[in-house]
# Entry
Amino acid sequence: MKDREILLHNPQPCLRAETEAALYVAGDMTERAAGEYARHLEVCPACAAAVAEEREVAAWMRALPAERPTAATLSALSAAAVRFAGELQARRLQTIRQPWHVRVRRWIEAERAWWEPALGWTFGVLILLASAQVLRDTSLTTANPEVAEVAVASTQAWDYELEALGEWGSEVRYRSDSPSEREWSDTRDEALSAQLATLRDNIRTLSLAMASDSP
Amino acid sequence: MDFGAVRTPSEPSDGELIAQFVDGRAAAFDALVRRYETTLSGFLRRMVRDHALADDLFQETFLRVMRSLPTYREEGRFGSWLFGIARNLALDALRRRRFEQELFRRPLQNTASDGTDSALIEGVTDSRLAPDALAERAEWGARLEAAIAELPEEQREVLALRYDAGLTFRQIAEITGSSINTALGRMRYATIALRKKLGVVRAEDQADEGPRDSPP
# Structure
């Protein structure tokens, strides 16, 4: 409110006077900006007046006597510095005398501030990467729903065939009384099952590949 | 960058002094205190307007700095950090004082009138000036101090950080947590208010109103 009143009593026709005058007088402007503002001052009475005012106040402030703390304050600080420097030295000597594993443990504890968040971030990134990989794999079957459906259906069909074949083999085995025939049947059954399983896996891989390649 | 500090190029930087102190050399801390004693003391006194309190805060600031130095990483911002600590302590002290004054219903103590006059007269002693001129200058200084003391806290803070601490406006903005334009605006308001309180006519009106009232 006070600031507003001050402005009302001191109208500023140029907005640049409010910010740039003090900056210019303080010498905080870049050389280029200062040059440009100096040219502006030649044509803007408001800014020229503001700069004159800022310079005058700066001169008043510089003329005020410098402040210094009392001698008692300075000597108290000096004594505290001697005590604290001694403590620091003692702490360092104590650290040097300690065995290496204690020093490592202390270092880990002292540096916890940076390694703990770093470890957290690393785990976070690994989890994100793993999630991305899982999503990518899952997307193989969902790239084209129709093809994915065919792939799943064909895999299920082969599973049923395998199951049926196993049942048929068992029936043959139990029907035959000859041990050599049963052995032959078992061997053949196993070989056929293995071949069919390989074929099923190949079809599954092929179907998934088709699903991912399809637009 | 050692802003706000009194340092010649041959002297060690703030960072070097800090490293020496952490190595156990107490004299390095004394050098650091000497480097900032004028600027920090001036800033604190301007903020709290009380010599004794400013002295206490000066000591407290450096004690806090000392305790933090072993873990402090100097990146050329020691001055900014130092004045930031001092500012927070000063604001806390002002808040505490306001609370106490409200509690006991005392009028705001303005030590600028009791403690400043003698300091001003001491500070302005200049053998080249005639006694009349000296007295006039001392009187002007006292009026200026009183006018500064009446400024709103945020304007007084910018004024102190600029002229007592010698900080740039970018650093002032950083320490006060405001934008650079806010800091510059506060400085402009402070300038206008000071001139108004001191009865100095505006520079652009000067030509119309004749000679102005200015410091001797």
